[in-house]
Specification:
The chain is 42% helix and 20% strand. With 241 residues, it is of the alpha/beta class.
Length: 241
Amino acid sequence: MGLERIPDFVADAVRILPEASRPADLEALLCGYLGHLVETNEQINLVSRRNTMDHVEVFTRECLFLARILLEEWQTAKSDRPPRILDVGSGGGFPGMVLKIAMPEIEIQMVEATRKKARFLAEVAAGLDLRSTSVVWARAENLAEVQKQAKAVEGSRFDWVTGKGLGSLEESTLLAEPFLRAGGVHWTFKGAKCKDEIVAAGGMFRQRGFVLHRTEPIPGERESYVVGVQRQAGARRRRGR
């Protein structure tokens, strides 16, 4: 199973965060979460069962890099309240659970369509006593429809909407759109086709009031990026695509 690998790669991976920003229990909580993830993966397909530990290590590093970017964004914004995050299609907890462990002050809601995975996430959040954390068993598309019908005000929307493996950049941005406040950012991960996807999404960005906010190469990985797409303040939503 390779559980013995977890403490070593976690100890190395957390170095991607500035030392002053690391919670005192960061390594302990990550090790507890990842250990439970790998064990539960024997019964529930949370991550690939082929080369599981390799995937877990890479995903953990990617998510901690995103956490570093989000810490920078929060510091730059000089906001007097913690950011609100919606993590779409949380699966086994990448990136949502890692972000919450690395940034305990944030308020996060994780949305997962598979009941067993949603239950796993809720168990981890309760077991690690992660405050301001909720897990919703639902499809994001269904939640978006409820959001529209309720005519949700800006105050109920999220500062950041994160997600991994949600399709193309255009598709994931459209999925995030109903939940983002004006000025909010959709954060996701992209591979070798990152630049092509950015170009392909350009028309939709212009039509619906989005701009490319940041594209950051992930250290130590070849052609892997964190991408942020911002919903412009004052942008009018248009029907259709």
